[in-house]
Amino acid sequence: MDYPKSIWIVIHREADITRSIFESQRMAQSLGFDHGRAQMIATAVSELARNIIKYAQKGKIIITPLNERRRSGIEIICQDTGPGIPNVDQAMEDYFSSSGTLGLGLPGVKRMMDEFEITSIVNQGTKVIIRKWL
């Protein structure tokens, strides 16, 4: 099977969030994810893209097909150069919010995906890598 290449999207306005949602779902479906799992991936991307706008104003999302020996899937990298997260462990707790929301965003993304990595440095930015396997 000929897999699509990575898609890079600069995030700095609402239309970019919409594009990242569309492209992540489209790639997931092209890789063989069913509608429900493709929607789950798109929901995770939506949350991460909205966080970029909300906290950093600008960043990027890279959507990449994964094809390893015995499995294939999708990887999404979301990165910004915003204020960073002072306490990542606290941010990963359900119901914690630094902005008055429900506080389900990052923990929810982690639950929806098979792999979740986050690194954040105050005053330098945040990088989240998520993967979902077929």
Automatic annotation (TrEMBL):
Domain of life per record: Bacteria
Stored CDD domains: HATPase_RsbT-like
Domain spans labelled Histidine kinase/HSP90-like ATPase: 36-134
One Pfam family from the record: HATPase_c_2
Signal sequence range: none
SUPFAM superfamilies: ATPase domain of HSP90 chaperone/DNA topoisomerase II/histidine kinase
Gene3D superfamilies xref list: Histidine kinase-like ATPase, C-terminal domain
Protein name (Swiss-Prot/TrEMBL): Anti-sigma regulatory factor
Organism: Spirulina subsalsa FACHB-351
